[in-house]
Inverse folding.
């Protein structure tokens, strides 16, 4: 049975899909970052990560026959000798300390022509921390009084606009009283 085998079909035949993945992977390994459709990026992620894993295995072993075997496995999938050489010789050093998750996908706005969902897929280096939240620093005993003073200052600043608003209202009332007095005096003079 073919349960859970229907992933990333991309609307093309198997051979065409393999050619697309080979082309996208070679571009990704050369440029570290490429822009493509979201569907292609999601399909490329597992493909590229498997190739990086082959490169890591080759770097980890001392047996030249195994290194050649891993390289030939990658060549069978990617089909670009220069891209595979670039991955195995230069790029693999970035991923030696990273345990999986070698790529990241950013979603972009839809493409103008056909409204296809666009994305950027990029390679992640080993020292990249990602989007983890920064740990909150504990307040030391010395800093606690300073924090209380800062809160008190903020409360005092909030009261200032309230006082200003009250004085503005009072000046408006006084101005309306003056206008009313002038109108009354003008009416008296007319009579």
């Amino acid at each position: 049975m073919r349960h859970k085998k229907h992933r990333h079909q991309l609307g093309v035949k198997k051979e065409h899909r393999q050619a697309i993945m080979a082309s996208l992977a070679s571009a990704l390994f050369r440029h570290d970052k490429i822009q493509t459709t979201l569907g292609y990026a999601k399909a490329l992620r597992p493909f590229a990560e498997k190739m990086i894993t082959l490169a890591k295995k080759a770097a980890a072993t001392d047996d030249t026959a195994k290194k050649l075997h891993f390289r030939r496995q990658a060549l069978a999938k990617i089909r670009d000798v220069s891209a595979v050489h670039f991955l195995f010789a230069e790029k693999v050093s970035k991923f030696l300390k990273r345990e999986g998750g070698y790529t990241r996908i950013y979603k972009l706005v839809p493409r103008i022509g056909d409204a296809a969902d666009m994305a950027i897929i990029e390679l992640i280096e080993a020292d990249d921390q990602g989007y983890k939240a920064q740990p909150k620093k504990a307040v030391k005993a010395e800093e606690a009084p300073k924090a209380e003073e800062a809160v008190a200052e903020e409360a005092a600043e909030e009261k200032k606009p309230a006082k200003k608003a009250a004085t503005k209202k009072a000046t408006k009332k006084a101005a309306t009283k003056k206008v009313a007095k002038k109108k009354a005096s003008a009416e008296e003079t007319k009579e």
